[in-house]
Specification:
It catalyses: glycine + O2 + H2O = glyoxylate + H2O2 + NH4(+). GO terms for molecular function: flavin adenine dinucleotide binding; glycine oxidase activity. Pfam families: DAO (PF01266). There is one protein chain. α4 packs across α7 and α4 packs across α10. Strands 6-7-5-15-16-17-14-18 form an eight-stranded mixed β-sheet, with helices on both faces. Strands 9-2-1-13-20-19 form a six-stranded mixed β-sheet, covered by helices on one side. Strands 3-8-4 form a three-stranded antiparallel β-sheet. The chain is α+β, with helices and mostly antiparallel strands. The protein is globular. It has two domains: 166 residues, FAD/NAD(P)-binding domain (3-Layer(bba) Sandwich); 150 residues, D-Amino Acid Oxidase, subunit A, domain 2 (D-Amino Acid Oxidase, Chain A, domain 2, 2-Layer Sandwich), CATH 3.30.9.10. β11 and β12 form a beta hairpin. It contains ten helices and 20 strands. It binds flavin-adenine dinucleotide. Flavin-adenine dinucleotide binds next to α1, α2, β14, β18 and α10.
Length: 379
């Protein structure tokens, strides 16, 4: 396919879309105001957990997450092959732990609908539970085990996708400072603070928590807000029993990484675009962690950081073309699941650019669904 496209934003979503668009034959330029992977994508825990993240019902968002998980084995291998860079991809399965009898009913009802969607789940109790995860608190009454869930080391994945982009011929411009959309109604022109100008036939906006900056220019409501996630890691030497699964409760998660760290997350704070870490935020995590994994009462995290999740008003990402300007596409607002959702987002965006109709259920992710900035416009 011929044509030029600019991808605005070099997080995991922009990078993955750029790679897939290039694989489908487009000339792709990616522009990033800072370093690629320098925001939410580099902060993420890297869990690929559609079942643990969707506990209520199999809605369109769950379906998107599940389909993306099914793409991961091939996608991550393709990224490794094209980039020549290795990164952790661990098919560990997960445990969603109940610490009170009253939570058991909720696990059982989840088990029922999730099994019909391929989770392969089972409920573990007593000795079976502690054999599966020996370090777990003996106060745990049960856990829903979902064997198909997995995780990646997110900063390395982002770097590998960037390298795969470069190896495939995507032109990447980083550290450009503020970038503005100078023209968009027919052809696209971007003007960077650095003085550079970029032009193309099409534009993909994948600027994460910053996407609402485009609202006024494009004339549509883009209700996307930053939700800060504070997160920490413990050094995990070989004498300590490693965690075998992703471990979730309603309060947070724990995930063992191959680099000898145990990552524990994450807060959900409203703090604007502030990415600082607070003692209060981390204390909440450490207090909770030791109730799940008692050994964590003896140690303190050695590393703390934070990132801004892009949250959309209705909880669903924005994926696809604009109704009133088909050459402008949006892929943003992936909130807690952008690492998981990167392969399916890349595939849907590339299909849209190729003019293929998206499956009907993907209408739930239409970028125009919130209407125009003036009530009624473009809705
Ligand atoms: C603590 C934490 C833990 C998480 N854990 C998980 C997890 O376990 N699993 C999972 O799937 N997801 C997880 N997430 C969510 C995931 O990180 C995000 O959904 C995902 O990174 C969003 O990717 P993105 O590319 O849209 O955004 P970002 O990574 O934020 O990238 C957006 C990029 O756009 C750039 N940009 C902004 N404005 C402009 C502009 N005008 N021009 C050019 N560039 C611009 C920014 O500099 C940035 O680099 C976690 C997030 C956090 C914070």
């Amino acid at each position: 396919m011929n044509g030029d496209i600019i991808v605005m934003g070099g997080g995991i979503i922009g990078l993955s879309c750029a790679l897939e668009l290039r694989r489908r034959g487009l000339n792709v330029t990616l522009v990033e105001k800072g370093p690629c992977g320098g925001q939410a994508s580099g902060a993420a825990a890297g869990m690929l957990a559609p079942y643990s993240e969707n506990v209520e019902s199999p809605d369109e968002f769950f379906r998107l997450c599940r389909e993306s998980l099914s793409l991961y084995p091939q996608w991550q291998q393709a990224v490794k092959d094209i980039s020549g860079v290795s990164f952790e991809y661990a098919e560990t399965g997960s445990l969603y732990v109940a610490r009170h009898e009253a939570d058991l009913l909720a696990l059982e009802s989840r088990l029922e609908w999730q099994r019909s969607w391929g989770s392969g789940g089972e409920i573990l109790t007593g000795s079976a539970l502690f054999a599966a995860e020996p370090g777990l608190t003996r106060k745990a009454v049960a856990a829903l085990r979902t064997p198909v869930e997995s995780h990646v080391y997110a900063p390395d994945l982002a770097e590998a996708v960037k390298r795969a982009c470069l190896a495939s011929g995507v032109r990447i411009h980083e550290h450009l400072g503020r970038i503005e959309l100078a023209e968009w109604r027919e052809r696209v022109a971007l003007r960077a603070q650095s003085g550079e100008r970029f032009e193309a036939d099409r534009l993909l906006i994948s600027t994460g928590a910053w996407v609402q900056e485009m609202s006024e220019t494009l004339g549509i409501r883009i209700p996307v807000y930053p939700i800060r996630g504070q997160i920490c890691a413990y050094a995990w030497n070989e004498e300590r029993e490693p965690l075998r699964h992703l471990v979730f409760t309603s309060q947070g998660y724990l995930v063992q990484k191959a680099n000898g760290t145990l990552v524990c997350g994450a807060s959900e704070d409203i703090a604007g675009f502030d990415t600082s870490v607070t003692d209060k935020g981390i204390r909440r995590l450490t207090e909770w962690n030791k109730q799940v994994l008692p050994v964590l009462g003896e140690v303190q995290p050695f590393h703390r950081w934070a990132g801004l999740r892009p949250a959309v008003l209705d909880g669903r990402p924005l994926i696809g073309r604009l109704d009133h300007a088909g050459h402008i596409l949006v892929a943003a607002g992936h909130y807690r699941n952008g690492i998981l959702l990167s392969p399916i987002t890349a595939a849907l965006i590339a299909d849209s650019v190729e003019g293929k109709p998206l499956p009907e259920w993907c209408g739930a992710f239409r970028p125009n669904r919130f209407g125009g900035v003036q009530a009624g416009a473009f809705s």
